[in-house]
Design a protein that fits this description.
heterodimer, A: about 500 residues, mainly alpha, Cytochrome C Oxidase, Chain A, about 70% helix, about 0% strand, B: about 260 residues
Chain lengths: ~500, ~260
């Protein structure tokens, strides 16, 4: 059968894994996944509006009281990390569910815990007035002059619940994958890896399964770091113990930075799951794929320290490790994913509809955001750029044009697979608007950073305002693109929901 | 967050009519449980149902007779613990105990069935519980409960009633009569219930002046200690609620049955 995604059938098409398992065993998981994606991307749009408010303020177009600016900034940052992580983890659950038996019940419970966490964050910022930033570097947030200790504790409680939700998701995912593959050695293809690809006795995991395993392991580590940070903070607030500030900084960044990193790598996992459907070629588990992704298990947990270069008390060994890990974490996965994707696409007859365009945009954003991050992770450069707009530039690139584009692309792919209704033609134009608007918006962050405009400032000097003013029209273009994509999805979503039940059978 | 200079009183308040009511309720339940329900058709009621109902009565006694209740007249935080226990512990446990008996709807008169059916619709139950929780925490209504013991009893009774309604769609109704059939609906209902109580808790926690001025007249209380106690009270509504809803999610969200083959 000719795939609707391609112009001509290819020989490997039969080897592709369908989204819906043949016995429809994953129907309920696909529904939860759709909810994760829609709630995550819907929250992303709301948080985006807060971002626009901040840029309008920084451009001097709209004046927000500084105390509110910092609340909005905190909510925007925390909300974006949580929203995007929710969306991509939903996509990943869908991607592995056809071959791995996941529990929809566990995924729903994780969603409730996530909602409880986000409600704490929203109330702590908007009602409690917490504005310490999403990384909440101890001990400053507990001594806010504008907010009370209760607000800080509510914020921490929000993070604790979000960490618990992530932990539940990751533990369940890892357990299900290990069970499906007969243990961790097989899940991570370790015999294949250490024999340099010669030992092929064990069946190899599909790339999305391998990536899901890697991500889950790191997610468990990140959530554990979150607990190791948050529980002592609560005990400190109760007067039971004091917390070492350097310990707190390391654990909060191991938690927060890894969570942010997870989003992009989970997003990349979605490319491995969806792109083969458009090219008609399966993404094979090669030695390079296994090596690159297994390395990420360690590297993603060691690169966070590049946010602590300015902390003189941080051991030099950790600083050097951070620099090496920051370079190393990006390059193997970049190379393997980009070369793999290009190999799949080359002469495949791919039909460039919205979904593959969004996935390609995501790769573009990931690469450029990653390069910005690698530059920032270089110690001499970091000392000049770290407290400038360069940092929001790099993470906005790999979030907005990377992880978010992957999530939109995967949602379009899911809706198409479940409905067999193609995205509207205008959606391709909307993707261009998304790409151009997003790139212009981000470019202004990079230019501002290169010109030493500081980050995290509510009030911008007149000579800094130009960058934000130029960014605003690009944000409007971006918003138009996203509004159209949302509308296109909304018109087909009900059919996709029904489509999780599979095709209607004739008696 | 301290409670100022108000000394915590460690005594129980043995209110004979209330103690009698709890004992009678427990005895009636034990008899019904032993004979397998209300009507002629016998149900198999598991020991866990009896345990749940007995636990509900025990927690109700702790909430309304123990030092929690005694200090609740002088400390908002203790009064909030009473409310927490009633709406988040007693109400769901009572439902676990009695739901199978009440689910035999045909035994009740039509008017009761209709009213029950209407009041336990998820939207109605959520709105009712939300309105009652918020109205009773409005300063005017709350101060009234402190001034008049009868109103105080009505407040507690209405909390219990409202939250019996709230938990019914999640715990009470049988799978066949389930108004929240899908997990998505259950999650939305839980989140809606959690959000409104969390918002109220947050508003009380972060309010910068004393909301219920009657507490300022308690001997030994200063404005600062009353405000600190109010912050603790808000947090006691907010934070434990999050744990209750997490546990509730784990208990009421079901493993979906595999979707049946659709045939046209």
């Amino acid at each position: 059968m000719t795939s609707p995604h391609r112009r001509a059938p290819l020989a490997d098409a039969a080897a592709l894994t369908p989204l819906l398992a043949p016995d429809r065993a994953n129907s309920s998981v696909l529904r939860v996944a759709l909810v994760y994606l829609v709630v995550g991307l819907g929250s992303f749009l709301l948080m985006g509006l807060l971002g626009l408010l901040m840029r309008l303020d920084q451009g001097g177009i709209l004046v927000i009281a500084p105390v509110w600016f910092y609340r909005v900034m905190t909510l925007h940052g925390a909300g974006m990390v949580a929203s995007i992580l929710l969306a991509v983890t939903g996509g990943l659950a869908a991607a592995v569910s056809a071959t791995t038996r996941l529990s929809a019940r566990v995924l729903w419970i994780a969603l409730v815990i996530y909602f409880i966490g986000t409600s704490f964050v929203i109330l702590a910022t908007l009602v409690g007035g917490f504005g310490g930033g999403w990384t909440v570097l101890y001990p400053l947030p507990t001594h806010g002059l504008v907010w009370t200790l209760d607000a800080a504790l509510a914020m921490y409680a929000g993070y604790l619940f979000i960490a618990l939700g992530l932990l539940l998701y990751c533990v369940h995912m890892l357990h299900a994958l290990a069970r499906a593959h007969g243990g961790f050695v097989r899940l991570f293809a370790l015999r294949f890896l250490f024999s340099l690809g010669r030992d092929t006795r064990d069946p190899l995991p599909r790339p999305p399964e391998l990536i899901a395993g890697v991500i889950s392991l790191d997610g468990i580590a990140a959530a554990t770091a979150g607990m190791l940070y948050l529980v002592p903070i609560f005990l400190h607030a109760a007067g039971v113990m004091s917390v070492d500030a350097l310990y707190a900084k390391n654990t909060v960044l191991l938690f927060g930075h890894t969570m942010a990193n997870l989003s992009i790598y989970v997003g990349a996992g979605l490319v491995y799951a969806a792109l083969p459907a458009f090219t008609g070629r399966p993404w094979r588990t090669t030695w390079a794929v296994v090596c690159a992704w297994d390395l990420i298990i360690i590297l993603m947990l060691t690169n966070y320290s590049h946010h602590l270069y300015a902390d003189f008390a941080q051991p030099v060994g950790l600083q050097l490790l951070a620099e090496i890990a920051s370079y190393a974490v990006a390059l193997p996965s970049f190379i393997v994913t980009i070369i793999g994707a290009l190999t799949l696409i080359y002469r495949s007859g791919i039909r460039w509809t919205a979904a593959p365009m969004l996935l390609a945009l995501g790769i573009w954003g990931w690469v450029f955001g990653g390069l910005g991050a690698v530059l920032d992770a270089t110690i001499p450069v970091n000392q000049v750029l770290h407290n400038t707009m360069w940092v929001p530039a790099h993470f906005h690139t790999y979030y907005l044009l990377g992880a978010v584009a992957f999530a939109w692309g995967y949602l379009f792919y899911m809706v198409h697979e479940l409905t067999d209704r193609r995205a509207a033609r205008a959606s391709s134009i909307a993707v261009w608007l998304y790409g151009i608007g997003g790139a212009g918006f981000i470019l202004m962050f990079f230019v501002a950073g290169a010109n030493s405009v500081p980050r995290r400032y509510a009030v911008h000097l007149a000579q800094w305002q130009l960058y934000a003013r130029v960014a605003v029209p690009f944000v409007i273009v971006l918003a138009l693109g996203l509004a159209w994509l949302s509308w296109d999805l909304a018109t087909r979503f009900r059919a996709a929901w029904r489509g999780t039940e599979g095709p209607t059978l004739q008696p | 967050m301290g409670t100022g200079s108000v000394a915590f009183v460690w005594r129980w308040e043995w209110d004979p009519p209330f103690v009698a009511a709890i004992v009678v309720a427990e005895l009636v339940y034990v008899v019904l449980w032993a004979r397998g329900g209300i009507g002629s058709r016998r149900l198999r009621l598991t020991p866990s149902r009896l345990t749940a109902f007995t636990a509900a009565m025990a927690v109700m006694a702790i909430a309304l007779l123990s030092p929690i209740a005694v200090n609740g007249e002088r400390l908002l935080s203790m009064h909030m613990v009473e409310h927490d226990l009633l709406i988040w512990v007693v109400a769901p446990l009572v439902l676990v105990g009695v739901a199978p008996m009440l689910d035999r709807a045909e035994r009740f008169p039509a008017i009761v069935r209709n009213a029950g059916g209407h009041l336990t619709r998820p939207l109605v139950a959520w709105v009712t519980s939300t309105i009652l929780l918020w109205v009773w925490h409005a300063p005017l209504a709350y101060e009234w409960t402190l001034a008049d013991e009868t109103v105080h009893h009505i407040e507690h009774l209405s909390f219990l009633g409202a939250y019996l309604l709230y938990w019914w769609p999640l715990i009470g109704s049988s799978r066949e009569m389930d108004s929240l059939r899908t997990n998505g609906a259950r999650v939305a209902y839980l989140v809606a219930g959690m959000m409104q109580s969390a918002l109220l808790g947050a508003l009380i926690t972060f309010h910068q002046s004393v909301l219920y001025t009657a507490y300022l007249h308690v001997p030994g209380v200063t404005p600062a200690s009353a405000l600190a106690d109010q912050r603790l009270a808000g947090a006691l509504m907010w934070f434990p609620g999050a744990i209750v809803f997490t546990v509730a999610a784990a208990l009421v969200i079901r493993q979906p049955a595999r979707l049946s083959t659709r045939v046209v």
